[in-house]
Structures
1.
Amino acid sequence: MSQANQKQAEHRLPSPVANPENKAFLEAAQKDELLLKHCNSCKESHYYPRTICPHCGSDDTTWIKSAGVGEIYSYTVMRRGVEVPFAMAYVKLQEGISMLTHLTNCDFDSIRVGQKVRVVFQETQDGQKTHLFEPV
Amino acid sequence: MSFAANKYDACIAGIYEHPLRVAPDHTVAQLHAEVAQGALQDAGLTLDDVDGYFCAGDAPGMGPVSMVDYLGLKKLRYLDSTDTGGSSYLTHVNHAARAIAAGQCKVALITLAGRPKSEGSSGTQVRSQWASAPDFAFEKPYSPAPLNTYAMCAMRHMYEFGTTSEQLAWIKVAASHHAQHNPNAALKDVLTVDDVLNSPMIADPLHRADCCVVTDSGGALVVVHPDIAKSLKKPVVTMMGAGETTKGQMGGKVDLTYSGLAWAAPLAFKEAKLTPEQIRYASIYDSFTITVLIQLEDLGFCKKGEGGKFVEGGQLISGKGKLAFNTDGGGLCNNHPANRGGMTKVIEAVRQLRGEAHPAVQVPNLEFALASGIGGALGTRHGASVLIMGRLQ
Ligand SMILES: [Zn+2]
């Protein structure tokens, strides 16, 4: 299926909307950095980021920079009902938490659960950058 | 408060499923009213008897605030508009039963209606809650939809447990065997495993035939105090146990192999003082084939990871397999009104308990039935609700 080799670049990514809780995350993405929230109380990271730790309830949370590497926890290739096929995934980061994302720079037919990936940043429809992942 | 302490605490006395699957000339409010009338008539009651009303957040206008006035309910003293997507209506039955047992109302009406077929496949129009969701900024660039998030659940289940597309297909095959007997079903053709596998791949590993139908339609339920149920002409269906919860991404500790029913089902079985082995009919929410497979495991019909083996070879076909499921054809073949299938799950379970299912699919001498629902999207965030009901002997 030739469609399956479409690169993510041809899928126009919608843009996230900033708010006080995600502003630092979105600004970091413009500098090709992936931030996570880390809790100083229970020492665990969480995603999506928020002020109060969802694991223990503490408000002693800080931003940390993720290494941006991990593996595919699960994925799907959306092949129909969309303008351009795209590969959605949960990527489990080295920091131990999983995030919703897209996979890019890969043959959609050869993606596998467990595959090692790293973060890349790509422009959305209105020029903001957001994180995606590509095979290592 | 436990139903099991007294099997007479609350009864489902009225059911109605709208016969239309496409309703371009109806308003959504009108569909709500038609199903309300149908369920009350089935119970032998009228709108004037209703003192409790339940609808979800997709009801027109301001939910119950608009619908109570539209329906002309004059004796209302209890209402609830809990919205957990397609599982809402099972949760409404649970809440209504407990409200009745607590003396808050005596006749509770629950309605659902919508026109996703006529208004566009995205479903009913009220979806503003997604835009305000705190996680939305972290998901919007990636266009999650119910279909692709369920597909990721299927992919992970296959990876961890070796579940196959053929096994998932058996779920659709069983639903299609039942739908052939339902004159109102949106899809009436009996399918084979190959038919499912040969349908187009939509979102790996889910094919078009792994998906439910999109239908305009609706349904309603009437839950009543036992004193009222005894005076009605229909066989009495009683509430025995219920459980409800939600499950999300858990701060990033994502596990797509199980649903919230893994937490809610044990509560329901404990309250009903029953075990899964005692259930011979189950209405299992079937937005996609994988939805059914994961719930069968979480409900305890088989061990985690063994759902594929449990369903293959027609084990869900009534009269043939070990567990009859969705004998109306379910959401996969019959009806998934307003993209919210929980209502029809309860309706067919009640038909089975009353002995009113189609003779070709009726489970003989059925004493207990289960209905389960998943609302929202299994792979991101969902409501999960389960009811266990019994026929009063
Ligand atoms: Zn913490």
2.
Amino acid sequence: MAAPAPPRPLARTVHSAPRRPSRRRGRTRLELALLLGPALVLFAGFVLVPIGIAVYYSLYSWNGFGPLTDFVGFQNYADAFGGAVFRGAIAHNVVIAVLSIVVQLPLSIGIALLLDRKLKGRTFLRMVVFAPYVLSEAITAVIWLLMLQPNGFVDELLRGVGLGGLVHQWLADPGIVLYTLFVVMTWKYLGFGIILLLAGLQGVPPELREAAALDGATAWQTTRHVVLPLLGPTIRIWVFLSVIGSLQLFDLVWIMTLGGPANASTTMASYLVDHGFKRYEFGFGSAVAVVLFAVCFVFALLYQRFALRRDTAGALTRVVG
Amino acid sequence: MRPSRRFPLAALVAAAALVLSACGGGGDEGPAAASGPVTLTWWHNGTAEPVRSLWQQVADDYHKAHPDVSFTVQPIQNEEFPTKVPLALQSNTPPDLYQQWGGGDEASQVESGRVADLTSSVQSWIGSVGPTAQGWQVGGKQYGVPYVQHVVGFWYRKDLFAQAGITAPPTTMADFNAAIGKLKAAGIAPIALGGKDRWPDAFYYDYFAVRACSAQVLKDEITAVKLQNPCWVKAGQDLQGFLATQPFQTGFNGTPAQQGAGSSAGLVANGKAAMELQGDWDPSTMSSLTDDKDLDSKLGWFPFPSVPGGTGDPAVLLGGGDGFSCTTRAAAACAGFLQYLTSTPVQQKIAEAGSGLPVNADAVASLKSESLKAVAEQTRKASYVQMYFDRAFPTAVGQALNDAVANLFAGQGNPEAVVQAVNQAATGNK
């Protein structure tokens, strides 16, 4: 069905507003400098400068001690991409990101739709679902590390309910360790996605559902054609956060597996810390950090440009002056 | 209106100036005079009792005897040192005295130019520390002093050995394999291994190499960071052969070494496995992971068995130690304190506290358990104590070795790949 043409965005009309007198503009600039200045100084000092320093370090072979003398150009980058372990790490990050979208997203939407209904104990269920998100990653990792030990809680539980055949070496088998970590991640972050989606569902006007019901739409049709499209902005933000989070995955891996066994669960971030801090390869570690940053940055830019464009159109403000 | 608008700007400028000046001026404490009162900032890893109190006591006692020297003692988590020390050595205010494990890490830290060369100041007394002190030398110069030494061997439960019908600790590989067979037959996991942490895996490769290679080859090729002798490959083959007998508990590749009852140390402590190849610190680690108050009496120790076909002396042991390095600001006062740490009365206290084997032989009698005394005795008889390879090599090389060995344990890679990993990492290749 054809939607009515949206009203022209407000920003357009601002363009044609008469320019303000220059005295006021001068004062506006002073105000801007005053209000933005400190934030910009902090941002430059704690965000931009460190990134610049990392790029600079990445061009040297440097163990963290003494002056930077051993300039190697892009050799560190070549070494990183030339090594099977780092390429494997990138692949693991991609697997986690894809699994998140394919598994966590439908699961989150399903549970969110369920919890959006009027059912008994809804508040309690919402709390239970959200609880894991409150725990820090470190605590989550330690809890699951203990539960996933051979003959630990998970194995005993499986045997107890007659699923003993499913018992695996959850963290010791290179073939499944990455998926084990993904399950733990899902356990931890599902609640966050659900809360986000529930908030999005609040924004679905009940009138639309009523109208759909009057038109004779089934529950599925209403969900598919009314609710999900209106959840679009929330889903797009969730995907953004989820992919960035997957690319930066570190804490769970470091505490539960140290990237092992046999590098089967190494991620870009765990590889970075392993080489930078455990091996005193600060130049090489910086190169890996720059790669990780570039991947996240490029993804963020492209995603904002293409996927989030509609969502952010009204939020972006024209530069003053 | 106007003044009230200006005010925030003025305040802001003032605040910014304050912050900037504070940042700029913070680092410069100025060099302390060679003599006169000095306060040593001491970073040690004794965050747990009884070591924490012991070190505080030692500092207080030393201050009483030397009023010119006072201390700011900072216990820091063991795992934090690898990140804190490099950063501190880059800053203007490194600690004056900090935890040092010698070997490749120390060699890297020396490059900062802030670690004090203690060679001349320790000359008169370093002999009392024994040959262990060599591990804290870089290029023939002493950059740190160990206060305890460590030795790796098999800790075993006498009760489980008896239950499996093993009458004496094995001394040869054949005995050892037979013992493993008996334990399996009795339904007991023979050996616990914390493979998640990788360094326990490396103990096995290290020991097979120590048995396959002569002490001279070990010294020469590890110092040169170039493994050429075929014995290094033989070590890997011996290890693979041993792995094929499946001597470890289920899921050893994902098991942590020292944390929790499910760790390898916890498994032995709770009677779920019979042995663990670990350092002399293992009994104290185990006692914190079990309710068993009689654990010490159930534990025994035997060295890594002899392996057929190698040129290594079966009396060579693998080990290391804990020590301290001084930075240059107050090196003289710091060296004086290190001498105190290695003196017999302090060494006796260290031995009583159970934090390791005293480097000073006169303090061995103060060790708290019979098994530890036996380890110290064995250590004294050792023809040579090889430092763990991951410490003896430059850091990046040591980690590459641990990785390659961990791959072997996970059923990937091969003996040649271990040697190759070391030689490649030595040339800076990833």
3.
Amino acid sequence: MSARTIAAREGAGVVQVDAEVLGNSAVGAYRHLTLVTPGLAEIARPGQFVALAVGDGTSSMLLRRSFSIHRVSPAGTYGATTEIVVAAAGPGTEELTRLEAGASVSVIGPLGKGFPLPSQPVPCILVGGGYGSAPLFWLAEQLRERGCPVEIVLGAATADRLFGVVEARRVADGVTVTTDDGSAGTRGWVSDVLPDLIARTGAGVLYGCGPMGMLRSMSAIASDHGIVAQVAVEEAMACGVGICMTCVMPVADQHGTTKMVRSCLEGPVFRGDRVRWEAFDDGLCRVPADAVGAPKEAR
Amino acid sequence: MTAATPPSSVDMSVDLAGVRLPNPMMTASGCAANGREMHRFIDVAQLGAFVTKSVKAQPVSGRGTPRMAETPSGMLNSIGLQGPGVQAFVEEDLAWLHSIGARVVVSIAGSTASEFAGVARAVVRSRYASAVAAIEVNISCPNVANRGLVFACDPASSHKVMTLVREEVPRGLPMLAKLSPDVTDIVEIADTVLKAGAHGLTMINTTLGVAIDVDRLRPHLIAATGGLSGPAIRPIAVRAVWQVAGAMRAGRIRTAPIVGAGGVRTGRDALELVAAGASAIQVGTAAFNDPTAPERVGRELEALIAERGFTRLSEVTGIAHERFTP
Ligand SMILES: Cc1cc2nc3c(=O)[nH]c(=O)nc-3n(C[C@H](O)[C@H](O)[C@H](O)COP(=O)(O)OP(=O)(O)OC[C@H]3O[C@@H](n4cnc5c(N)ncnc54)[C@H](O)[C@@H]3O)c2cc1C
Ligand SMILES: Cc1cc2nc3c(=O)[nH]c(=O)nc-3n(C[C@H](O)[C@H](O)[C@H](O)COP(=O)(O)O)c2cc1C
Ligand code: FES
């Protein structure tokens, strides 16, 4: 079974391929998958993601699962490859983590808007929570190519849920590790170490990918320091390509107008100060009363 | 990279209440946004018709999240008719669909019967009206005036909506009524809307369900209930089409084209609906898995019809009724 293109219209910036699994190895609590994805790797940017189907066209799990692109190799020995890091969180990701080398999986990507890169060589801090660090190393390389000093902060509940500590040391000028239980690095949350790090490095931008709670506190810390946070969010997505409207979140535009926007199309990367974090609570997100088209109070 | 289709011996064209479509394939409302995103994967102008997300008079934010839950061979959704409102829809979405030469079925919705009529008027009087192949009236949304009761569950309300919309729709433009399966007697509702002037029927919309998050032990969706769609509901769609087409054949209700929707993922699924009585097919949830599905299913359907020795799609429409001996 080798990789096959299913759909790729000229200039669409996205492809649908039946990818071949080249490798699947354990990394701490996660699986690292390498996929042969002709046409995809060539056009991807850090912060973009891919949407994988679970099983074939007869699977009872109909919805695609989204994963940040860890890195791409446009011209490897096997052609263009895309790497992702998968945590077995539920039935779909469990099935995907069992894919063996040689197996076929339907992949759509690259999807969404990636991390915007600064035009000036400003110091940057990249913050990853759990597998959320997956897209950051490739981002770090691109930032350093532009002359930006790069610090990486990796946080997780426990040491085995950290991803990429060794890789971080290779691509960053400094690495800080935090775990909730103290099994590696500093005990605590990434938000505990951020204020000092911002003060010490004079960072102008925070980049983050991880759980919503982490992104929310990162955004607050960035605002306190008068700097920008660019965060890659994770909203439940059914299609990943913009046709189902399931992945929306309340985000304010540059005029301050809040709309329920598709995080798969306008995101997954948003400016932290534009996201209406107060709308999120205990796994739910309510429509802010001032959002465009919000339901009117009791008629 | 769509594979070149070999010249086919099957005539797949459809007569949709006087409007000719080159093939029976459509998207399902709300399952392809308003075209641009799907156009990255397939040329939506090649579909028999593109069906838009249901549009209301004013912008609608839709519900909070989660508004989706995966279920066996399907999903629940409670999007809440999110959309930009008819004015922005016409200027941005319909204008774009017009510019690529798509045949468009505009799905309209409202909380009151007059809202439906207003939306229809704005669409048919717009400067992009030439792209409109039909108006699909989504009477499966709640009627605000009637304490949230769904229009399509109540013959009197659905009659009123269709009557008001019909006054806005010019002659020659088909008006389809989209029916909910959540009714005691779908043939009665079909009869009502046809008497009120509908030229065709789309069956079915989603059917109501609830999923419980068993970790938090509360409903998974922020709205608690959602619409079930996907292959899980296909037998319900086939049943609805079967019952209504049967009533038409028996002369119990007026004859009109039926657009089949519900759980279509493959050409075989589409063929089931066609044999039960559908003249055209909408593909909804399956597109979330495979955005090329509306086009792929059409190719598969054509091959299956050819394999069975037919030369026209219309020969197969409703054939299961002829081959059934109770
Ligand atoms: C942009 C983006 C990037 C992501 N990157 C990664 C990554 O690099 N590595 C990784 O392990 N996971 C990542 N995730 C999360 C991953 O997509 C979910 O864990 C996964 O979809 C859950 O699928 P499941 O079958 O295990 O769970 P189920 O609960 O069975 O999933 C059912 C449905 O809900 C959706 N869903 C459930 N939980 C989530 C969630 N947390 N986020 C999004 N959709 C969800 C699923 O996609 C599916 O459609 C990412 C999510 C998004 C949106
Ligand atoms: C996410 C989603 C949104 C939908 N939105 C609409 C809508 O706006 N108007 C409408 O008439 N039907 C809507 N539907 C129903 C579909 O058009 C279709 O009738 C139904 O999903 C059954 O077809 P399927 O099983 O192929 O999805 C929606 C369905 C889904 C899954
Ligand atoms: S996941 Fe379908 S629109 Fe974003």
4.
Amino acid sequence: MQLGDIAHLRTGDKGDISQISVIAYDSADFELLVREVTVARVLRHLAGLTVNSAHRYELPAIGALNFVLEGALSGGVTRSLALDAHGKTLGAQLLDLPLGGEDGR
Amino acid sequence: MTGQRTIRIGAGAGFAGDRIEPAVELVEKGELDFLVFECLAERTIALAQNERRSNPSAGFDPMLLERMRRVLPVACARGVRIVTNAGAANPLGAAEAVAALARELGLSSLKIAAVLGDDVLDVVTATPLPLIDRAGTTADLAAIVSANAYLGAGPIAEGLAQGADVVITGRVGDPALFVGPLVHAFGWSLDDPSLIGRATIIGHLLECAGQLTGGYFADAGRKTVPGLARLGFPLAEVKSDASAVFTKVAGSGGHLSLAACKEQLLYEILDPSAYYQADVIADLRTVRLHEEAPDRVAFSGGGGGPRPETLKVSIGYDDGFIGEGQISYAGPGALPRAELAIEVVRERLAMIGVPLDDARFDLMGIDAVDRTGRGQPPREVRARVCVRTATAELARRVGAEVEALYTNGPFGGGGVTRSVRPVVAVASALIPADAVSPRVVIVEV
């Protein structure tokens, strides 16, 4: 099973911070997200991403997690030389994050 | 709860370049009280300041007049009042231009309010402020071109209270564009953090317009959006307790789903318990969303704490130039040839003295945006070289070296593009709220 099978995502940015929400299609899967979609696994999946610090917020009322990845955007959209300066594609790259211990977490 | 009125407020644009047709549809068929155009991205205002310097009557969003030309006659006929931040670096100039347009369209008895006071360049140049997104103070930024504080809903509500049919602002918090009309319509106190917190969340949900109705949502095989090409924009039916139903015009494309609302609720939010705005620190954790019918999502809950004592300030400054060049390789071996091309350009730029301490060498299709390291060798790849430089001439050399790959690089390169652009960068600081004095000027037609 992959993350995209049970959750949808949207990516936003604030300065040099990338923000990725992970939202369960079915709120019953929220606990699974909490258990499996950890900061460590997100950062391991996005292995080429450099961040200064990362934090995960839990929103049980809507069955969602909110990841805040500081320093992820090469200085932020107004200074970055990156092709995707907003980091808008980052959430989509998490769709194939393996769930169910498939990558031997 | 007796006599709860409902105010209908629509989102006519989620960014400066947004489509106009959905706004026309909203104003014609949405039975709106208010229509909001959010048109001001982070660095837009700095670019607009540059324009204003060369032409004092410019400096507002160039698409404002086209939007107004399409929407204003219908809005006037139906009593829909318009709020927009498209004033950018020149809200008063924008108000005067809209007044001239209104006269041209034969409209009369119109009041257009300009919200001023977000421009705090004088304050920032007089007293350096610590930066919040990096070390140092505003004094460390060479060549500051603009400094604008994020104003709250107060002056927008005041403009409406003075009878404005159109309110044009510069920099305000995006949700304030929606909170202002609601405060005016319901007579709420800006000192009521729970009401203003909920209204701010309503504004936050609407501020990206089409992102609530299925824009930026469709994903082949996973998430379907009907009629995406005819995407309609959202409106909220808001009650005086700041509960709301989000919906859209019947027959418009897209859909207003619970899933899209959840995505938008968290969009660009950091700590969900503390969403900082000028009027309130909103709390999203207790928001309840419920799909009560197709294309109707009910919102309740949410809250907030007292307003911060500081306002965020966006500071625009000149930050050199970016030179860029791209070239494509295709067929078997495309990737190693592109890698060779990158190596060659890197070496040549170093030889001619282009500093490479702030440079990127991307293989588009491999590692330009993918951060998983899971890409497979493709049959086509585009090499990209991008360097920040101090002068336009150095930036020009970057694209020139990529172009030179045609006759001086690996086999089979094609489709070179090159560019040089000046960089207006943005830094953020906090300013004491009492150092900022918003005011409203009315232009009458």
